[in-house]
Design goal:
The protein is α+β, with helices and mostly antiparallel strands. About 40% of the residues lie in helices and about 25% in strands. The strands form two sheets. Strands 1, 2, 3, 4, 5, 6 and 11 form a seven-stranded mixed beta sheet that branches. A hairpin with a 6-residue loop joins strand 8 and strand 9. The longest helix is centred in the C-terminal third of the chain and has 26 residues. The protein is globular and about 60 Å long. The protein binds alpha-D-galactopyranose. Alpha-D-galactopyranose binds next to helix 4.
C-alpha cells in the first residue's frame, strides 16, 4: 500500500432557531422555549490533511471557525465550504448554526448537550459575547414538530408538541443590530449585580427585588422573574392546544422586553402592535436578543398571508 490517504466526504447540517418565549433568561439558569427551524447552515467538504480551509459568503467566518477549531481540536484537517439559508445577523442564530454544523463536520463526537457546550465556548471566544446556551442547544437538540422546554440550570430538554392548528411565523423587518453585542453584555452584567443581592434569579420572587435600591435593576430583575413564569404558561398552553392563552403570554413577554428589559426597537414595537390588530394572530413578540432582529408570531394557519410559517425541525446531523 502507498501512504496515500483518500479524504472522506462529509456533509453536516445544523438548523437555526426561533425562540417562542423566554428571552434573556438562559444566562441566569432560567427557562426558554425555542424550536429549531427549517432554515439552517450546511458545511460540506473533504476531511484530511492538517489544515482547516473553508470558503463561504457568510460574514465573520474566520472568528467562528477559529473558535470551533480550538474547541473541537480535530484529528485531521478539512477542506470545504459553508452555505446557509438563514439571514445572517437577524436573530435566528446563524452563528450557532455555523458553529454546530462545523463542529460536526470536523468530527465532534458527544451528546447534543456536549456539542452545544463546545459551540457556546467557541462563540464566547469568537465574538466575546457572553451568550447563554439556548441557541447552540436548540440547534443541536431540535425535535421535529416540537418546541423545546429547556431548563438552562439543569440543562434538561423537554420536547413540547406544537398543535397542528397553530402556525409559527417569523417576520424580519431587516433592521441592523449594531448595539447588540455591548448591550447584551451590559444586560448580563446587570443580572450579576442583581443576583449579588437577591441570590439566583431563577429562584427569586418579585418580593426579593424590593431589596434592590436601583429602579433600573428592579425592572431588569422583574423581566427575568416574570419571563420564566411566562415560559411555563406558554408551554402549558401549547400542551392544551390553547392558542389564545399561548398568545397572551407572548404579548406580555414583548411588553416586558420593551419596558423592563429595554431591548426592543420602535420598528419591532410597531410590528407587534400591527400584529395585535391582525385577525387570527394569537400573539407576537420580539425574539432573541433584541436591539433589532425578528418578531415571532403564533397564528391560525394563513393569518399572515404575506409571510410563510417556519417548521419545527430536527437538530443538527451528518447527512449522507
Ligand atoms: C442571544 C444569546 C442567547 C440568549 C438570547 C436572548 O440569542 O445567544 O443565549 O441569551 O440572546 O434570549
Amino acid at each position: 500500500m502507498s501512504g496515500l490517504k483518500l479524504g472522506r466526504r462529509v456533509r453536516a447540517w445544523a438548523p437555526g432557531r426561533v425562540n417562542l418565549i423566554g428571552d434573556h433568561t438562559d444566562y441566569t439558569g432560567g427557562l426558554v422555549l425555542p424550536m429549531a427551524i427549517d432554515l439552517g447552515t450546511r458545511v460540506e467538504g473533504t476531511s484530511g490533511g492538517s489544515l482547516v480551509w473553508l470558503t463561504s459568503a457568510v460574514d465573520d467566518l474566520p472568528a467562528e471557525v477559529a473558535g470551533v477549531v480550538s474547541q473541537v481540536r480535530p484529528e485531521e484537517g478539512f477542506d470545504g465550504s459553508v452555505s446557509t439559508t438563514l439571514p445572517v445577523g437577524a436573530g435566528l442564530s446563524s452563528s450557532a448554526a455555523l458553529e454546530v454544523a462545523l463542529a460536526l463536520a470536523l468530527g465532534f463526537e458527544g451528546t447534543p448537550l456536549e456539542l452545544a457546550q463546545a459551540c457556546q465556548a467557541a462563540e464566547h471566544l469568537a465574538s466575546g459575547v457572553p451568550c447563554g446556551i439556548m441557541d447552540q442547544l436548540t440547534s443541536a437538540a431540535g425535535v421535529e414538530g416540537h418546541a423545546l422546554l429547556i431548563d438552562c440550570h439543569e440543562l434538561t430538554v423537554e420536547p413540547i408538541p406544537l398543535p397542528p392548528d397553530l402556525s409559527v411565523v417569523v417576520l424580519n423587518p431587516g433592521e441592523s443590530r449594531k448595539l447588540a453585542h455591548s448591550a447584551y453584555a451590559d444586560r448580563r452584567h446587570a443580572c450579576n449585580r442583581i443576583e449579588l443581592v437577591t441570590g439566583p434569579l431563577r429562584e427569586a420572587s418579585l418580593a426579593d427585588l424590593a431589596k434592590l435600591d436601583d429602579p433600573v435593576l428592579m425592572r431588569r430583575g422583574r423581566h427575568v422573574i416574570t419571563e420564566n413564569e411566562r415560559v411555563r404558561e406558554l408551554a402549558e398552553a401549547l400542551s392544551r392546544g390553547d392558542g389564545p392563552a399561548a398568545g397572551e403570554a407572548m404579548w406580555a413577554s414583548h411588553v416586558s422586553l420593551r419596558d423592563d428589559y429595554e431591548v426592543s426597537t420602535p420598528t419591532l414595537d410597531a410590528l407587534v402592535e400591527a400584529l395585535r390588530e391582525t385577525p387570527g394572530v394569537h400573539g407576537a413578540r420580539l425574539t432573541g436578543a433584541g436591539f433589532g432582529g425578528c418578531v415571532v408570531a403564533l397564528t391560525e394557519p394563513g393569518a399572515i398571508p404575506w409571510a410563510s410559517p417556519v417548521t419545527a425541525s430536527a437538530g443538527a446531523h451528518l447527512e449522507r
